[in-house]
Amino acid sequence: MDDSDLFAAPHRRPSLTRPLLGLTILVIEDSRYACDAMRLMCLHSGARIRRADCLKSACRHLQVYRPSVVIVDLGLPDGSGAELIENLAAATPRISAILGTSGDDFAESVALAAGADGFLEKPLSSLAAFQEKILSALPPDLRPHGPRPLVDEAICPDPMAYRDDMAHVADLLTEPRDERVLDYAAQFVNGVARAAKDHVLADAAQAVARSRKRGAPVGAETARLAGLVQNRLERREAI
Question: pTM of the entire structure?
């Protein structure tokens, strides 16, 4: 099924107030918190969203549907989002717009080098910026015509989605300390914590990543990170 066929229906054409109406956006994102932000942005913009939390799930989606837009997180649990971007950019027929997303330094250049049409920097909070990034990546015939009122809105994801992410990390940190799992956990926590403005947790994740990069022991830093994650799970409030 080609989801871009939705544009053939006149009532599904984009409008000035709902500039992404008619689009189906596949979001390949392992963080429930980040994905909930994009879900709300799609809802406010008129787009339909599908979600995959890993490369394997994304491939299953793409075997059945061809979405109008694909947003790919570069740090996924089962591989590199950049490789998926490269494959999608080379495919025929090509998806109308492919965007990378990450909160890591230098990630934008990696995504664009792989063939992405644009990049969404995390944390994602501005509705206007989200819409503009997607519209600028689309072919001109899929964009709404005429001047568009710029109505910005700060998007606040569900705090319970943050708690779900913490539960996911807690499971990772209780498993045998595989180095790849630890690297992924530190990267994941850093991105989610920055999005939620949880600076203490982000600093702890960055400390693990720095020690891993230096090849230094990470036992103390990992224990601190695991303790902070558990603390957030035990709080009555989600964040």
Answer: 0.88
